[in-house]
Recover the amino acids of this structure.
């Protein structure tokens, strides 16, 4: 594992980023106390090791601006989704036109598709059922809504998260 | 308002317990039992016992469900709903009678319990300064009544050994189920966070609710999640290293107890060392308990298809 | 405590509770398991988000607020994955979605 | 403290109860597994509200930890349900219903 980590400068960078992240998380967990750094150090090292083992650093790196773009997209859409389902549930006559559809994914395989499936599950009108091949099976609450446009918009927002390999 | 909350909580607890016992569908029974566990955790929170709420949440949400569902699969009874209905009426009556007598006995015991002649809370308060920690529950568990905890760990270890001894070692043929990417990603993201949280709980035990049992339950749940996601093989038979890990906490605890016995008393730490010793024991216990708890699941999972 | 913060917190908590109500109503009314999953992954998660936000604005320290806010993404990840697992399993088992034409169901 | 935390905890518990009854009724096993989703969500919400509902201002931080642990582990039960709750025989049984 250590060998993998030090073969590339980018890997060192991602190790640094993750250490910062885990340290920040530890600091939040202990609510800003400063007397736990001994244990904190050990736990950051342990979780960093687990994270490097489970998710070896890749050449593609995250873009912080892109993450922010995706996050704001997600928040807005998710509030919209909540309202939509709330209105659907609360109106006197249920107005549903549910259907299961297979739609093509344009994102590259791997993490991006998982993020897509999970995001669609949390966004209005769609629920991911399975990823198979280059297709994503979705359950859709109302088939009269423009699902394809929403799918492409979500894919575009997700594509921002990663920087293209330089 | 809190009275209504508590009444509703108790009613729901009883309902889920009843459903869990009364249903003939075993999967449903397991679901209701898990629900019961969650509600129990809320009840402990209401009763002002966050330590137990924490343990119940960790064990109930992370382990019990997975373990029971796996047990269902091993015993292969999921396909027989209504099998419980075939119990003869006479046996049912006998069970009902015994349960009623027990319940009445318990109620009488609770109602007529003699008042305690010693005030334990004030005794604990008076001795907190020597305990080496500032959280009373940890002081009681690992210092004042350390031998109880020692025996509890022994019981858990014995349970695992018993399972190893009884179950026939027939490993599952390794089938290549494709790893589901969504599930695997969740495990890859969550497991490091679980490790961090387990360390935090271990650290917190010194001065607030937390400690070895809770930390171990979180770590064991991480193991279960990895296994369910297809990233961790089931254990067929523990190797040397694993055996060492399973027993390390208990052996450490026991040898410390033996050394302290030469000083004259069972598990009475010198006050100067108490804090460090408790942390050492807790770290050892976290490691071993997490392996034992995960082992209960991973070893059972590795023996699917037992007749 | 500052009255404005208290009002903001109360408002956020009430919005959260409304989403929970909608989620429960949806769970009771929606016709099949897929549609019910929709309410749990959207309405309930949003309800929890607003409740966490409402509690975070009145937290006594910034770190406590961060700790509360940390819980939300954890629940989101868990619930997206669990709903995916359930939907996938239901689909594998051949539980067909109840379909409607949009006028009534 | 806005004074709302206690009543809202009760309200969420009522929601949890209604949803649990729904989930317990089925009709399919998939519906029963919805109980697992409710854990991570409503359970966490109730615990957080209880942490604040104590009435004293140094809020019950331990309950926030309980909520955090529940949020972290809620996925395990849900995933175990989906992966393990249905054997092959069960499928046939389910379909014939």
């Amino acid at each position: 594992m250590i060998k993998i980590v030090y073969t590339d400068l980018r890997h060192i960078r991602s190790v640094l980023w993750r250490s910062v992240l885990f340290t920040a998380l530890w600091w939040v967990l202990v609510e800003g106390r400063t007397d736990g750094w001994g244990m904190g150090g050990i736990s950051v090292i342990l979780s960093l090791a687990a994270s490097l083992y489970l998710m070896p650093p890749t050449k593609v790196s995250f873009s912080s601006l892109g993450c922010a773009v995706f996050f704001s997209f997600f928040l807005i859409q998710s509030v919209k989704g909540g309202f939509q389902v709330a209105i659907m549930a609360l109106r006197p006559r249920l107005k549903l036109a549910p259907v299961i559809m297979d739609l093509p994914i344009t994102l590259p395989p791997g993490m991006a598709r998982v993020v897509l499936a999970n995001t669609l599950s949390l966004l209005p009108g769609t629920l991911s059922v399975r990823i198979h091949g280059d297709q994503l099976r979705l359950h859709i609450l109302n088939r009269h809504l423009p699902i394809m446009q929403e799918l492409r918009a979500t894919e575009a927002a997700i594509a921002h998260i990663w920087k293209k390999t330089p | 308002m809190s009275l209504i909350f508590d009444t509703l909580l108790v009613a729901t607890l009883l309902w889920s317990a009843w459903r869990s016992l009364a249903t003939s569908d075993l999967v449903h029974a397991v679901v209701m039992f898990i629900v019961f566990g969650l509600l129990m955790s809320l009840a402990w929170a209401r009763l002002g016992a966050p330590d137990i709420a924490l343990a119940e949440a960790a064990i109930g949400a992370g382990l019990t469900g997975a373990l029971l569902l796996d047990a269902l699969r091993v015993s292969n009874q999921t396909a027989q709903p209504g099998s419980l209905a075939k119990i003869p009426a006479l046996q049912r009556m006998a069970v009902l009678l015994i349960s009623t007598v027990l319940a009445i006995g318990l109620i009488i015991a609770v109602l007529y319990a003699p008042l305690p002649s010693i005030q334990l809370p004030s005794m604990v308060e008076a001795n907190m300064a020597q305990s080496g920690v500032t959280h009373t529950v940890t002081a009681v568990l690992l210092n004042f009544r350390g031998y109880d905890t020692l025996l509890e760990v022994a019981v858990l270890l014995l349970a695992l050994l018993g399972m190893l001894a009884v179950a026939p070692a027939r490993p599952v043929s390794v089938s290549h189920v494709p790893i589901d990417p969504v599930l695997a990603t969740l495990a890859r993201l969550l497991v490091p966070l679980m490790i961090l949280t387990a360390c935090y709980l271990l650290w917190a035990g010194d001065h607030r609710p937390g400690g070895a049992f809770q930390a171990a339950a979180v770590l064991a749940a991480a193991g279960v999640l990895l296994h369910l996601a297809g990233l961790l093989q089931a254990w067929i038979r523990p190797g040397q290293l694993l055996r060492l890990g399973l027993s390390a906490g208990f052996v450490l605890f026991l040898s410390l107890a033996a050394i302290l016995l030469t000083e004259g008393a069972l598990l009475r730490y010198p006050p100067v060392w108490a804090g460090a010793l408790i942390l050492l024991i807790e770290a050892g216990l976290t490691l071993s308990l997490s392996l034992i708890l995960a082992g209960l699941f991973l070893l059972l999972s590795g023996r699917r298809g037992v007749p | 405590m500052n009255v404005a913060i208290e009002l903001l917190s109360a408002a956020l908590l009430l919005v959260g509770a409304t989403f929970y109500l909608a989620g429960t109503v949806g769970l009771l009314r929606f016709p099949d398991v897929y549609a019910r999953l929709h309410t749990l992954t959207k309405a309930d998660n949003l309800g929890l988000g607003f409740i966490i936000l409402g509690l975070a604005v009145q937290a006594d320290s910034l770190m406590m607020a961060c700790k509360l806010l940390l819980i939300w993404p954890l629940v989101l990840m868990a619930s997206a994955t669990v709903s995916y697992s359930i939907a996938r399993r239901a689909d594998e088992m051949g539980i067909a979605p109840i379909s409607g034409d949009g006028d009534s169901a | 403290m806005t004074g709302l935390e206690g009543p809202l905890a009760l309200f969420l518990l009522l929601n949890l109860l209604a949803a649990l009854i729904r989930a317990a009724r089925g009709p399919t096993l998939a519906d029963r597994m919805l109980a697992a989703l409710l854990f991570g969500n409503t359970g966490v919400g109730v615990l957080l509200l209880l942490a604040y509902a104590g009435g004293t201002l140094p809020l019950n931080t331990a309950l926030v930890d309980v909520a955090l642990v529940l949020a972290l582990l809620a996925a395990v039960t849900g995933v175990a349900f989906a992966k393990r709750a249905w054997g092959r025989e069960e499928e046939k049984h389910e379909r014939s219903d």
Notes: Chain A touches chain B at residues 22, 25-26, 29-30, 36, 39-40, 42-44, 46-48, 50-51, 54-55, 110-111, 113-114, 117-118, 128, 131 (CB under 8 Å).
